[in-house]
Amino acid sequence: MASSSGNDDDLTIPRAAINKMIKETLPNVRVANDARELVVNCCTEFIHLISSEANEICNKSDKKTISPEHVINALESLGFASYITEVKDVLQECKTVALKRRKASSRLENLGIPEEELLRQQQELFAKARQQQAELAQQEWLQMQQAAQQAQMAAASASVTQQASSSQDEDDEDDM
Amino acid sequence: MSQTNSGKQSQASEAKKAISLPISRVRLIMKSSPDVSSINQDALFLTTKATELFVQHLALTSFNNRSQTEANTLDYSDLAKTAEESDTFHFLTDILPKKILAQDYLKSLEQMQDEDSDF
């Protein structure tokens, strides 16, 4: 369902997610459609309630970001203290899952190859690259030398012919 | 290979057990509250889980206090009743126009008219 309006207040939790939760909480109970719709809207209202309270608590502290502590205090002051133990447990679980995920992805990158072997392969590649570079540099140097020699020879022969022609000129000048 | 696969699966199921509501949507709703600027990620997790517990709490309480105890159904009126009668859920009356009986409405209308005529 595409949202045509950009109104923030139309934001709600997806109906399907709510339906699923109601089904899990009240199995075998028939729930009227308008009741379901109401629960969806109550969720939004609840989130606003907690956010506003947590935000107020946050403003009173010298922090700019709403912290978990602020949310817990908000739950307490609004009469939802019974939720606190369970939400704290879930937070711990989320952190553990995130940590495991990070460890697992780094494990996957080194699939099967121990670190020493990877290092050894890296050193080999570097050595090879250095050697290739050296050979290339040497070749270039040789080519430069050859080019320089050729240039010298060409310059030498050019100056010989020049001298020959200039001495002729001098003779000509004497005659004039 | 199979080890990493089952590892991934158990991670996914752990995450599923933890939170079922979409966290990103909860963040959007929180940010649409006036003055709310930035929210710590952990605070977001807490709020999302609290909302889940709220849904369960509201559904169960309303069902247990339902007017039609013989039927295995949950009606709009059951929810409205809970909001009216419970301190915890009273904040919901803002979005719940309580459906009143027609005769009560007419009575209050009469009262208002009487008050007007006093002036």
Walkthrough of the structure:
The complex is a heterodimer of chains A (176) and B (119). Chain A has 176 residues and is an all-alpha fold. Chain A has a domain at 12-81: Histone, subunit A (Orthogonal Bundle). Chain A has helices spanning 15-25, 33-60, 68-77, 84-109, 115-175, and strands at 30-31, 65-66. In chain A, helix 1 packs across helix 2 (33-60) and helix 2 (33-60) packs across helix 3 (68-77). Chain B is mainly alpha-helical and 119 residues long. Chain B has a single domain (20-118), classed as Orthogonal Bundle (Histone, subunit A). Chain B contains 5 helices and 2 strands; from the N terminus they run ααβαβαα. In chain B, helix 3 packs across helix 4 (76-85). Chain B is flat and about 60 Å long. In chain B, 28% of the residues are buried. The chains are: A mainly alpha (176), B mainly alpha (119). Chains A and B meet through helix 1, strand 1, helix 2, strand 2 and helix 3 of A and helix 1, helix 2, strand 1, helix 3 and strand 2 of B. Chain A: One of its GO terms (cellular component) is negative cofactor 2 complex. Chain A: This is Protein Dr1. Chain A: GO terms for molecular function: protein heterodimerization activity; RNA polymerase II general transcription initiation factor activity; TBP-class protein binding.
Name a few traits of the molecule:
heterodimer; A: 176 residues; Histone, subunit A; 5 helices; 2 strands; 77% helix; 2% strand; B: 119 residues; mainly alpha; 65% helix; Ncb2 (chain A); CBFA_NFYB_domain (chain A)
